[in-house]
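Reviewer comment 2.1 asked that we show a complete input and output for one of the modelled complexes. We chose the pyridoxal-5'-phosphate case, as it is the one discussed in the main text.
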Amino acid sequence: MKIYDFEIDDNVFELGKQCEAELKERFAAVEKTKEKNFYKVLDSFRKARVSDFHFRDTSGYGLSDPGRDKVEEVYKNIFRTEDALVRPQIISGTHAISITLFGLLRPGDTLLYLSGAPYETGEAIIGIRKAEGSLSEFGVKFSQTDLSKRTEEDKIKKAKVGVIQRSGGYSFRKALTVSEIGEMIKKVKKINPDMIIMVDNCYGEFVEELEPTDAGADVVVGSLIKNMGGAITPTGGYIAGKECCIKKVEGMLTAPGTGREIGPMLNLTRLFLQGVFFAPQVVSDALKGALFASCLFEKMGYNVKPRFDEKRGDIVQAIELGSAEKLIAFAQSVQGVSPVDWDAEILPSPLAGYENDILMAAGTFVQGSSIELSADAPMKPPYVAYLQGGIYFEHSKLASLVAASRIKSISK
Ligand SMILES: *Cc1c(COP(=O)(O)O)cnc(C)c1O
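Response of the prediction step:
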């Protein structure tokens, strides 16, 4: 059948219908979480007494910016932390992670990843992959363990900062749930109560009713062109946590001594606030899209992570396609249903901070936004596509149906 220009295989369409019927209860649970998170966000705005006057612009140094203070207060309320930094000067999730680690660590300290290998761009920050100015050049040592599999007491005792990555990144592991993160933190703090725990919260915000800071994390960080920006915040990142941690980090945000006192909002205050106001809504649609893709591609015989009936920790859906041809067809299908640049040719290419060539489909309004419907994948076996975002469930659904139809014709 056809929906406008899009050719959808009749069997795939039928499978899609079955999925929607089977997912009814899961969708209802997603909406329940949205409702709870919306109330939390609304309460956070009301407690901060956000006013129309806060949307006024500041420039230059951005000294005494009451709008910026309100943004940070709203985040503090949402994450139930003592403090938060939320700025357009934090350019990405990677940048937020970098600022935080450089702020918390000193020469001779050890950084321990508690959830296995770090996200690809983290390898350069740490110096696992050679990069000018990495933590390793400043004498910060690194080790990793996978606490969900084993406990290595000696490593835990030695570390100053421990990192837990909520989302799986390109590792094809299931994202951690907040309760799993809480268990990990409890285990670690029993062995080393002084360890500072940072959670890389990218893609996880508003997926559950609680956030890692409700489960004992000292600091959480993330990107505003993912979940927290509600698909309309055009740039930025956040760092929320204990006052003592934020104090160490703010010098890295601007300069030691100057810290958080400067940083103009560049007329973005309204979009920062409106974005987080929309976020529970957008995350809920993105989650439904991920569930649909999980169900559909499993019915097509592919290995997916997570499966549609598993508890989710993030909005990312991984689909193991098994061949380069199918992976490219998947990415091209996602691009092809996009509102912007639908006719762009998607080819694997190098991307700053990543080791392998990356295939990236993102016909998005905000460059590189992955809370808008997008797909990416490192070009290597077993050719796993990572699908995420989608402001409309219907958009993600269309993308999955089109991609599944194209891929089906390849397997014939
Ligand atoms: C996206 C992501 C990052 C990096 O964020 P960017 O904004 O792309 O730099 C870091 N960690 C995880 C788990 C991510 O998903």
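The chain has eleven helices and 14 strands. We note this here for comparison with the apo prediction described in Section 3.2.
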